[in-house]
């Protein structure tokens, strides 16, 4: 396992052949397939629509004090 800070870093590590697999967002998945000969999508939400690849977790106290910030973050992701 290699910890990275973002999906873009995961994409870059995969396309640089520093890792054998990576969890990335679309359209980075297409970039990975094009960049690394013989690579393929292992699974995706198109294939497994109940697949959960991340989660957002917050303490109740933080959420109570930062409702608008939480809303902005969720809307940006969705």
Question: Please, could you describe this protein's structure?
Answer:
This protein is mostly helical and 78 residues long. It is 44% helix and 0% strand. It has 4 helices and no strands. Helix 1 (7-15) packs parallel to helix 2 (28-35). It is elongated, with a radius of gyration of 16 Å. The protein starts with 6 loop residues before the first helix and ends with a helix.
Task: Provide key terms for this protein.
about 80 residues; about 45% helix; about 0% strand; 4 helices; mainly alpha
Outline:
The chain has 78 residues and is mostly helical.
In terms of topology, how is this protein built?
Layout: H1 7-15, H2 28-35, H3 60-65, H4 67-77
Helix pairs in contact: 1-2
For the biggest sheet, the summary is: none
Bulk shape: elongated
User: N-to-C terminal Cα separation, in Å?
Assistant: 27 Å
Uncertain runs are none
Q: What is the beta-strand fraction?
A: under 5%
Q: What is the count of helical runs?
A: 4
- Global structural class: mainly alpha
Average pLDDT: 84
Share of helix among residues? 40-55%
């Amino acid at each position: 396992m290699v910890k990275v800070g973002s999906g873009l870093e995961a994409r870059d590590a995969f396309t640089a052949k520093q890792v054998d697999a990576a969890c990335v967002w679309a359209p980075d998945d297409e970039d990975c397939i094009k960049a690394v000969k013989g690579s393929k999508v292992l699974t995706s939400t198109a294939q497994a629509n109940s697949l959960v690849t991340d989660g957002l977790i917050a303490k109740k106290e933080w959420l109570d004090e930062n409702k608008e910030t939480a809303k902005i973050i969720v809307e940006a992701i969705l």
